[in-house]
Design goal:
Layout lengths: L6 E9 L5 H10 L12 E10 L2 E10 L6 H5 L7 E7 L3 H5 L1 H11 L5 E7 L11 H10 L3 E4 L8 H17 L12 E3 L1 H21 L2
Parallel strand pairs: 1-3, 1-4, 4-5, 5-6
Antiparallel strand pairs: 1-7, 2-3
Bound molecules: guanosine-5'-triphosphate and magnesium ion.
Guanosine-5'-triphosphate binds next to helix 1.
Length: 213
């Protein structure tokens, strides 16, 4: 069966090793927790078609390795991403402290228009929390990021994180702030919207023929 969608958005999942990036992607795509998740080698890939604001959007998601030794490989994926989930682990201050480095990389390598959501993952492990919700939300505000605490284990806020990012991108397309035709936007028109545009062009041509002007 061929899929029809209005837009395709390219997404990245980034952040330190062991924060739960692969589990978040798995939960989003399979709606279950990934048992025995191993460190990602380089980059893994997943996709899912979602409905946002009346549009069908295919999310093409690149789940990158957090380990330092893969940094040169993963850096090559930043270009041309429309959205990113920047993940830390609420039970590990080290992964939270590393966020500034991840942001520097993103701001240097990705499109200036990239929409980023900060995800404080492992929300289910509240008893082992090392990073408060308040300090992370302040950090997000200061750095112009959206913010959610998530749990790839229970599924809490996982779909929301992806959908919120997609909705923001869609709003920016509709307001004209984002141009899907721009090189490296990380956005492509799908069959459905191309057909609509063609139909629209067809009807404009017809109107012109009829009015003799
Ligand atoms: N309790 C709990 N554990 C989680 C959650 N998400 C991931 N984990 C655990 O955290 C560990 C690392 O998860 P991964 O998804 O492999 O981490 P990653 O960020 O992809 O790591 P790299 O691929 O090395 O960058 C695994 O043991 C998971 O079971 C969560 O939301 N809650
Ligand atoms: Mg991984």
């Amino acid at each position: 069966m061929s899929e029809t969608y209005d837009f395709l958005f390219k997404f990245l999942v980034i952040g330190s090793a062991g924060t739960g990036k692969s589990c978040l992607l798995h939960q989003f795509i399979e709606t279950k927790f990934k048992q025995d998740s191993n460190h990602t080698i380089g980059v893994e890939f997943g996709s899912r078609v979602v409905n946002v604001g009346g549009k069908t959007v295919k999310l093409q998601i690149w789940d990158t390795a957090g380990q330092e030794r893969f940094r040169s490989v993963t850096r090559s994926y930043y270009r041309g991403a429309a959205g990113a989930l920047l993940v830390y682990d609420i039970t590990s201050r080290e992964t939270y402290n590393a966020l500034t480095n991840w942001l520097t990389d993103t701001r240097t390598l990705a499109s200036p228009n990239i929409v980023i959501i900060l995800c404080g993952n492992k929300k289910d492990l509240d008893a082992d929390r090392e990073v408060t919700f308040l300090e992370a939300s302040r950090f997000a505000q200061e750095n112009d990021l959206m913010f959610l605490e998530t749990s790839a284990l229970t599924g809490e806020n996982v779909e929301e994180a992806f959908l919120k990012t997609a909705r923001t991108i869609l709003n920016k397309i509709e307001s004209g702030e984002l141009d899907p035709e721009r090189m490296g936007s990380g956005i492509q028109y799908g069959d459905a919207s191309l057909r609509q545009q063609r139909q629209h062009r067809g009807s404009t041509a017809q109107t012109k023929q009829q009015c003799n002007c």
